[in-house]
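Reposting from the mailing list since nobody answered there.

I have sequence plus structure tokens for a pair of proteins and want to know whether others read the tokens the same way I do. The first protein:
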Amino acid sequence: MANKIYTLNSTHTKHPTISQPKKIFNKLTNHRLKSLSISHLGGLTLLTLALIIIFLASLALGSVAIPPNEVLTVLLGGTAAKPAWQEIILNFRLPRSLTAMAAGSALAISGLQLQALFRNPLAGPSVLGINAGASLGAALIVLTGGSIGWWGQLSVVGAASVGAAIAMFLILLMAHQIRSSLALLVFGLMLGYITTALVTILLHFSHLEQTLTYLNWTFGSFSGVTWQQLPILLSVVIFGLAIAQLTCKPLNLLLLGEEQAISLGLSMTMVRCYLIFSASLLAGSVTAFCGPIAFLGVAVPHLGRSLCRTQDHRVLVPAVALLGALLALVANSIAQVPGNQTVLPLNAVMALLGAPVLIWLMLKHGKHQV
């Protein structure tokens, strides 16, 4: 039933359950697109400028302060006044900032897709068990003593990628069998509980040093991605974002509910597979390279809807991607504690930075959805 494509003819359009959602959908998309061309493009331009400024600031700030003009000189291919500055920018801060932008965009878009699919404001990348699958893969390497040296770090990334891929495969397999998105959501949660339980058992039987290594991985970090690994991460994220951009129209249809979306010609099975594949690819790749980064996938979509004041995903997808990159850069800069050698846990900074914003949005909108 979910795979059947319905066409709107003269007989169907007289039915109130079909004509009404069609009217609403036109308001959500075609009519609104005419009025958002200037205001929303201006907002996206401002977000892009803000992202560029924060990106340059992230290269200048840190345990060693570097003048902004020296940062620009290095980025434009010149030589910094001090060789150490050039080394810090090119080998440490630049790959870390690029990783933060890619990870922030990926997790934010993943959360946006899952919230639209499950019509659940608390849905995020961890809701399908993808993060838990990646964590289990990493735990199998770290807690068995296989994460020593450069090859050990690469094996952790590989194992986390395999764990995320297996979880994604199971979810896609169930998406073909389960017609209800709510049932699929419950399956994802149960899968997450199972993998978390397995990780807990591994932690119980592991040594203290191995446990500490794994806990440090769970804190999340953008600093572990090297120049050799960065092209792989960027390629996967760009591919996932391209799929997300192509699913904007189905996401808009899902705003009406599954039954109404089906009546307008949407194949729910196909849409679920596309959305789950894209969201899993984005969240799984980031978790594999950076650890389980929390909060971004849940909070940023709400922030994007509030700032853009629209439900149209043709606007929300680029806006949320920019906001995710921006917030990830800010959190990473704060975690580095400028002027100090201390590095704070990224997930702690992310929650302290994002939770007050989300609470403020809820208070501002009262009973309305954020």
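The second protein, same order (residues first, tokens after):
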Amino acid sequence: MKSYTIKEIAAYLNAEVQGDDSVEITRVATLEKAQVGEISFLANPKYQSQLEGTAASAVLLSPQSAQGFVGNAIVLKDPYVGFARVAQLLDTTPRAAESIHPSAVIDASATLGEGVAIGANAVIGANVILGENVQIGAGCVIGQNVIIGSNSMLWANVTIYHDVHLGQSCIVHSSTVIGSDGFGYANERGQWIKIPQTGGVRIGDRVEIGACTSIDRGAIEHTEIHDGVIIDNQVQIAHNVIIGENTALAGSSTFAGSTTLGKYCIVGGNCAVAGHLSVADGTHISGGTNVTSVIREPGVYSSATIAMENKVWRRNTVRFRQLDELFQRVKKLEKNVKSDD
């Protein structure tokens, strides 16, 4: 188990110590559940009441919250960011693979960097290049001509199709599929004619992709996921979508083909973004929103209605269908009023 003194953690965070800096810390915990040897944080004022009663050996606090606190504190501007960094420092997550397992199938033409680990029953295809310290979990399948950058990690049962490039320090969680065919077809008198998807997928550095997510390959050009993007579980990204730097996509959201999402965007869960449109840098899209037109100006965009009793929802649905009729009546009344004037 990893252990650091409060003094060492404060130095790591470039923060100040209030109290005894020699205390050992081994884990992170919530204010309510923390015990001796654990460190917690206060970032939301609604949990202020838990601060005085916490049993944590140390708490990450803002300068304002630290005033009057009698316990051990590490004082810094943003306690939540501090918590994230301390959680990394004390992380006990195991590796996806420890060595090259005897049951792994590795094509003779593959290139493996120093420190590569490949789990049981994984398959590494022709001309694959794995950078230094790459971890490939059990049961993964890596298609031909794939490149995976140094220090990237794939958890068990990830499938990466041919001609996909994954950058450095990326994490891909279990059962995700990268590079499957995009949904491209032509219709000839009712019959669907498949369009071969000959583009690839290009994923930048420091990208994390959640479990059971699908990222389709491009039809001709590549699907692109730029540096620093974070993608939650069960997200669908269609062919030729471009996701800008440091954008965050929450679970169960879908992005139709040839959509371009800007840098530093945040997309809530269960959103749907229509194809062949663009979304401006810095846009926030609330959960459950359907985006059907171009967003040219950054801001917060929402379209989901609030939950209500079913009987109320049914009445409102009927009224919604009457909106056009109501509009026409109002328009006619306005015209009559103008005529009377």
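Reply #1 (J.P.):
I read it the same way you do. The CA atoms of residues 154 and 267 lie 24 Å apart.
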